[in-house]
Amino acid sequence: MLLRRFSFQSPSNYIPPSTLIRHRLLSSNQNDDVQKVFGILSSTSTPEQLKQSLKSSGVFLSNDVIDQVLKRVRFSHGNPSQTLEFFRYTGRRKGFYHSSFSLDTMLYILGRSRMFGQVWELLIEARRKDQTAITARTVMVVLGRIAKVCSVRQTVESFRKFRKLVQEFDTNCFNALLRTLCQEKSMADARNVYHSLKHRFRPNLQTFNILLSGWKTPEDADLFFKEMKEMGVTPDVVTYNSLMDVYCKGREIEKAYKMLDEMRDQDFSPDVITYTCIIGGLGLIGQPDKARNVLKEMKEYGCYPDAAAYNAAIRNFCIAKRLGDAHGLVEEMVTKGLSPNATTYNLFFRVFYWSNDLQSSWNMYQRMMVEGCLPNTQSCMFLIRLFRRHEKVEMALQFWGDMVEKGFGSYTLVSDVLFDLLCDMGKLEEAEKCFLEMVEKGQKPSHVSFRRIKVLMELANRHEALQSLMQKMAMFGRPLQVDQSTVNPAETSDSLFTKS
Questions:
Q1: Is residue 437, in this structure, part of any structural domain at all?
Q2: I need a surface site. Which of 288, 329, 425, 471 has the fewest CB within 10 A?
Q3: DSSP per-residue string spanning 215-273
Q4: Count of domains in the chain?
């Protein structure tokens, strides 16, 4: 039986071993190429050095390689000016077109560094080369960076600039603006912009779903739902779930249950998101046991809970300090074939952090590593702050070693706390080692951390080591600082627009 079981291969699914090996080799070679190009980008300081190094590297700069390099630059906070040189250099090749992912990632990198003039220049260059290059997603990427540091008026002015750049300046672009305002500004701002522009862009189902998902009060959500129906826009499951979420967060559980009945009357089947909202709402009104029962009730309707639904129920018990019941739900998840994720563990880490329980946090972390669930940034910050509070250098260094080896968490955020601990404890050699490990990963230490290490090295008369660290920091460059009180990102390229 065992031999028969493993000897059968479906013709449609069978992949020859030689093909699998070839795919693995190609993937490995591409990773090596990405690492090599990223290293060149991080270690060169002038456009000439960059071009020469890329030419002599022997790496074929395909779209996939460029996509991955830019992705690494984004998450490592690499030098934006040098990255722009790389982007333009690779884009000048005859017959080559950057992918939408590359363009949007490059724009994100520039926008994060507030290099708005270069953002508009790059957009115009992309439009001249390919009229379809700029999409609604591009609009959202650029506006997201502008809205983070500029006013609503400046964000809307920048949005209007896209009329000359996007091939179809339509409702999809309008929705991108509204989504940006919901995420980076207030719902009042999004509402005002919606009313001022809704006659220029006819709202569709996605427009209302974006706005409904951001409301904080049931009254505001009800008004928009009414307007949606008056305009003849038919709601879908996402619409109902958005309303359900507002009701539950507003602790209006009775309204949520009425909405559940309305969904069924309209022949919409509530999905796992619907029930997860109810579970969260019941927890907010102090009924974690009733919320746990929803996990069972939803199965009767043919809807099975996922990890997010279980996490919502676990959160309720953690808030109620009933960790035994919370652990019980984790075990139930496992028996149902669901794996606890970083969010699951963070629910416990939060309780342990506020109760100052280092040992329980450490045990939970070790369990995660055994089960192959890598911590996310939130998990890392709970842990490193506890190590800092208890002055546990060995634990902190072991944890940092795992981060470096497995590549999880935010190096920048964690290292700030780690260097504080090491410097306070006089562990200069360990701090230097961690600093170098971070740089080798292409991650830029913060200037605050560097200054702390610098002071200790000066006191210890380790001037050569300090000079080496200063050279390492110089590789990352310094982002261009823009005075937002005097510069409007929507106006930085007015002269460029008049040329096109």
A1: yes
A2: 471
A3: -SSHHHHHHHHHHHHHTTPPP-HHHHHHHHHHHHHTT-HHHHHHHHHHHHHTTPPP-HH
A4: 1
